[in-house]
Amino acid sequence: MHRRDFMGAGLASLLSAGASGPAFATAGTPLRRVVASEVTSLDPQRPTGSLTTEMAAELFTGLTTYDAVGRLGPGCAESWSSSPDGLTWTFRLRPKLAWSDGTALGSRDFVFALQRYLAPETGAAQASRLDAMVGARELRLGRGAPAKLGVSAPDARTLVIRLERPDVELPVMLSAAYCVPEHVIRARGREWAKPGLIVTNGPYALEAWAAGAKIIKLRRNPRFHDVGAVRIDRVDWLTGYDDATRLRLFRLGEVDIASIEDSGNLALARRDLGGALRSSPECAVGWIGLNLARKPLADPRVRRALSLAIDRVILAQKVRMLAEQPTDSILPPGIPEYPAPARADYADWPMPRRLAAARELMAAAGHGPGARLRLGIGFPASPTGRKVYLAVSAMWKAIGVDVELQPLEGRAYNAALQKGQFDVFSYNTFAAVPAASIFLDRFLSSSTINFCSYRSAAFDRAFEAAERQLSIEARAGFYAEADRIVLRDLPVIPLYNGVSHRLLGPRVRGWVDHPGHAHPSRFLSFA
Length: 527
Known about the structure:
Layout: H1 3-15, E1 31-34, H2 50-59, E2 64-66, E3 72-74, E4 77-82, E5 88-93, H3 107-118, H4 136-140, E6 151-155, E7 158-162, H5 170-174, H6 182-188, E8 204-208, E9 215-220, E10 234-238, H7 243-251, E11 257-259, H8 263-273, E12 277-290, H9 300-308, H10 312-320, E13 325-326, H11 351-364, E14 373-380, H12 383-397, E15 401-408, H13 410-418, E16 424-430, H14 436-440, H15 457-467, H16 472-489, E17 492-504, E18 508-509, E19 525-526
Parallel strand pairs: 1-10, 1-11, 14-15, 14-16
Antiparallel strand pairs: 2-3, 4-5, 5-7, 6-7, 8-9, 9-10, 11-17, 12-16, 12-17, 13-17, 18-19
């Protein structure tokens, strides 16, 4: 079915939404997944949001990857090992790897891919997580040449990575450094990831997509190294649909998997489609970021007061109503080897005690009935965001803080965040790769995503000590210290831990709930 035909059928169905129940597509049709986000690029090294993270896992594979239950395992590399000092890693590639156009894929492709991934013009969001590699930081900051990066290809199936310091989580971080085709990029430049040109090495290849179109059609890649385990031939991703439309499409059986992000539609799904609803904790957090470059927020007493005054239970259960867990911890659950994030000392205080302590702190900082503090709070424009920050402003009003809501559309919001234009801001983040460092490294004084302008020598020392450890267990101990320091200093105010909600059609098999964000189609099948 062409996009125009599908859209016509979908609109006709929506207009006759009195259908008694789902009449799901037959086994001969594609797996259809509908989401709110839209895709602006299929380049896996330039992700622009949660959907591009999911699409990268459909089309590409790195040295390592995650399985159906969220465990790290072999990707293009069949095995790997490190030297006793942890400074040299050797990856052995699978035999007979190939790109979707039939071109052989070897270790040289990974040399090129890592050089491109770390190049400043690529702008890969996760690039700093490979800073342990020799020459990586210099390359990323535009001060070093790609040829000086510590990666080499002794032969077609061997890749050697040299580090400046040990990094026991290197295989974890490499899972997001997807391989990209040098032979196409050299020939096509930035156009390489467009329909008709893009070449992939993952379970699926691109069948059809046009910029601005709402459907991305994928077909099984016959040259994928594990193609025999990919059970579904074709996958259609329907993108850019609002929550109510996604729910209607699922009810009408026009899609197999639908994400639900709005509390009203979640309530309807629970009432009418409870057997199809899958809700699971996600390795994600909702924070309020505080701009410490703004004078009032440089005072730790003010930051602690703002945190004390927020009733997280009310926000989670009465305002957002998305089954999220209220939290006073910086880190979410679901991080391997890090089962118990630090909790604030006031986490179990009743709200009257918290409010009294908050008022005392504000008075000590020179704020009160006669000297109220005024703050602007930025957030991506949405009905849920507006409800949340109206509730927060009411909670802060009780301790002498007046708030101006400053909603902006997505791209404008991100640009303003980068420029430090807000006093206070919505700061939600998820880990495509579940690791403590994904959440903590943004608080480093040198981090390019330190939107809070937080500076702490103690935090930097603890985090950098963690990075030097030769075991996951030793690293976790130093991360715990860094976690406690951030929780004490409060450059962000934690609110809730994320939960994902998806509706699964009756013919879908193989779905496993886990804290990771992506659930690739390669692990699914039809009944």
